[in-house]
Amino acid sequence: MANIKPHELTSQCSKKTFKPVYLFAGDESYLIQEHSKNLQHALNADSLNVEVMSGETVSGSDIIMAAQTMPFLSERRVVLVKNVHRMKTPEIAKIVEYLKNPSPTSCLILIWEQKLKKDTKTALLFRTVESAGDVVELRALYEREIPGWIRERLKESGCRIAADAIEYIVQESGTSLMDLDNEIEKVVLFCGKNHEITRADVEQVSGHTRKVTIFHFQEALETKNVREAIKISSALMQEGEHPLMLLSSIYRTVRKLLIAKALIEEKGMSTMEMQAELRMHPYYAQRFVEALKKCRIDSLKKCLELAATADTALKTSGSQDPLILEELIIAVCRP
Questions:
Q1: Does the pTM of the predicted model rise above 0.85?
Q2: What is the mean pLDDT of each run of 10 residues along the chain (335 residues)?
Q3: What range defines the domain where residue 112 resides?
Q4: Total number of domains in the chain
Q5: Using CA atoms, how far apart are residues 195 and 191, in angstroms rounded to an integer?
Q6: Is residue 236 part of a domain?
Q7: Where would you tag: which of 73, 157, 268, 295 has the fewest CB atoms within 10 A of its CB?
Q8: Are 322 and 242 in the same domain?
Q9: What is the CATH number of the domain that holds 30?
Q10: Which residue from 51, 39, 46 is spatially nearest to 79, judged by alpha carbons?
């Protein structure tokens, strides 16, 4: 059986025809995270029946035991194993043996975040998964594929976008899907859903004419300089910047810190690997890594929740009350 395409996985999810094992593999972390999360959502297993492991610290026997455990008051269990590409060969061999007769009440999701080579694709694990379930290969997109991806992302919000607007987004943000997704979120937040997006919209959202100021605002947030962050946000609003645009910048900053922190603490990446994963400029990366030391995952997650609350407050009331943003900035910058 050949590797399946993402749309084939989507079809399985909609039909609820699940396999006992899925292997998400490739060098595009954003797509791997997106599609594996969609699968987990479709499987609809509650927290009591979901177990997440890391291939660097777990044994093959532990994975098998988790997969063979009967679900509790649910149709199936979900066992998610990250960093499978870092597991030792004897431990992978145990998984291969299990897959010869996998549990029908469990779904084993394996994450292999590494560019695939010919010998990898023909390795025993991949061949066995293809027999028992499905391999979903998610490679980095070619530059020519980026415009179509942007259109599809905006289509989900009912938006259409002009070709020159796409060109501008790619020119300003590059081809990192994570960065592009951030820009798309900003555009939809600014323009609203079911909108025809023009280059003028994108230029206004990007804040290109105020790039240095926005950069300093994000820097103040990352370094937890609360006075400077509030000072810059006040100056931007006096210049006519809408609070929702500043809120979007806060959200992106916190989200990037959270992703970076998770890559280091949960995936076991070094700071250099994390920088490469997020495609950071060396000059920016040094300051970012220092700022990251002051952050905790639970605090960053809480800040994202507070950002969502602030977004609701600003939208439902139609208010531009600077206190809403100031309270959020204080929370983000809290030691």
A1: no
A2: 82 93 92 93 91 93 95 91 93 96 96 86 90 92 87 91 87 79 87 86 67 71 90 83 86 92 91 82 74 90 92 75 87 87
A3: 6-137
A4: 2
A5: 7
A6: yes
A7: 73
A8: yes
A9: 3.40.50.300
A10: 51
